[in-house]
Amino acid sequence: MKIGVIGDDFTGSSDIANTLAKAGARTVQFVGTPAARLETEIDAAVIALKTRSIDAGDAVAQSLAACRWLVANGAEQVVFKYCSTFDSTPQGNIGPVAEALLEELDAPLALVCPAFPANRRTLYNGHLFVGDHLLSESGMENHPLTPMTDPDIRRWLSRQTSLKVGHLTLESLRSGGAEAALGIVERNSERLIVADAISDDDLLALGRIARSHRLVTGGSGIAMGLPGNFGIQPAIGDLREFAGSDGPGFILSGSCSSATRRQIAAYGGARPSKRLAAAEVLDPGAAVASCLDFLASHKDAGPLVYSTAEPSEVAAAQARYGRERLAALFETIFAELALEAVAAGFRRIVVAGGETSGAVASAFGAAALEVGPEIDAGVPALVLDGKPRLALALKSGNFGADDFFERALDMLKGYGR
Q: Which of 124, 135, 220, 339 could form a disulfide with 19 if both were Cys (CB 3.0 to 4.6 A apart)?
């Protein structure tokens, strides 16, 4: 192994696994930190954690355990992967985890770059944009768990850590002065360096600059240029075969992002769909039974179960029932529903939302996921090659075109066999 990745949620982990695989790295994604040593020969390992919204101390402990496993199994470079919209609160968890990893790896500094131009996330003058909107005006300011109300990543990160935060400007990066600029910030004792990037070429340049860095942090885009530093190159030619799973499929959505709401509107108009309201989850057993009956009655039609709602409705439900309580109930129900559906014969699962994806993937226990072809930017097909064989797509809420659900279920069947 050359590159080891610690992902703070499951959709982000599959996102960066997809990036590494496209860059030619033989990549495996793990559900949680493995207990045993690595047995297979790979280039990159991605450990998917569910640490984005938990207590900062727990997030640090889990991330350090993952880091130690990766290093013990040969990782020469560690990447801390978080969302391209920098999902966090003023208290963490990005800053505390990055600070702890710097100390663990005895690294002088680390780049901080959530940019992902393919999904219109760009960083300029230290400010994060989603399309042509500042992050704080993109809808992320209404996120139910990590509302992003400040687009200045330097300022947001400084609230989360005691370390000095620096800045690598786009001008320095593109003029060839990045190495000198990093030398200056290191002398100024700035250890977390927010790096501008507005194109894939910028991310590739950052990858080359980070060739000797023990720690790199960012969105999946920061990994684009890292495999090349180890002589790893993309495969030549078009791979025509993917062994997915051709059993029945269904969709679960817990995301309330604007992209997911559009996808539900596009899919639910022609396919069977069931809304799981907040009041229903107060009785988890009844909710699972009702949703399972719905899935079973539409087994061959790609049924959709969702809790997705408009931000105002989400806020009202949280105020009435409690934010943490609702989140835990929804995750428990979706995880149990996934297990019951698989027991009932379903073999393809599409999940929308980071927290929901984490709950569903974790329900199947510690496992290694094979990384398949890209369904949409940042979303690969994944295979859990067990008994039974399952094909999954774990989608971040804001990712994917409006027709994503239809295409994802179809691709998970596999092709070229």
A: 220
- What is the distance between the alpha carbons of residues 179 and 412, in angstroms, rounded to a whole number? 43
In CATH terms, the superfamily for domain 249-411 is: Four-carbon acid sugar kinase, nucleotide binding domain (3.40.980.20)
Q: Which amino acid is at 66?
A: A
Domain segments of the chain as ranges: 3-230, 249-411
Return d(Cα 276, Cα 334) in angstroms, integer: 10
User: Which tokens in the block code for residue 152?
Assistant: 């200045």
Contacts of 299 (CB under 8 A, 6+ apart): 248, 344, 345, 346
Average pLDDT (191-218) is: 97
Question: Helices (H) and strands (E) in the chain — how many of each?
Answer: 13, 18
E runs forming strands in 202-279? 215-218, 249-253, 273-275
Residue 208: count of CB within 10 angstroms of its CB: 12
The predicted structure's pLDDT at residue 237: 58
The packing angle between helices 258-268 and 404-411, to 10°, is 70
pLDDT tens readout for residues 285-309: 999 999 999 999 999 999 999 999 9
Residue 326 has pLDDT above 90, yes or no: yes
Tokens representing 280 are 């229903």
CB 248 within 8 A of CB 348: yes
Reported as a single tens digit per residue, the pLDDT across 347-390 is: 999 999 988 998 999 999 878 998 988 999 889 999 998 889 99
Nearest Cα to Cα of residue 257 among 365, 90, 145, 340: 145
Distance of alpha carbon 390 from alpha carbon 385, whole angstroms: 6
Encode pLDDT of 38-79 as tens digits: 988 999 999 999 999 899 999 999 999 999 999 999 999 999
End-to-end CA distance of the chain: 30
pTM equals 0.87
- DSSP for 296-321, please give it: HHTTTS--EEE----HHHHHHHHHHH
CB contact at 8 A, 111 and 207:
no
Tally Cβ neighbours within 10 Å of residue 7. Answer: 31
Q: How many CB atoms lie within 10 A of CB 298?
A: 17
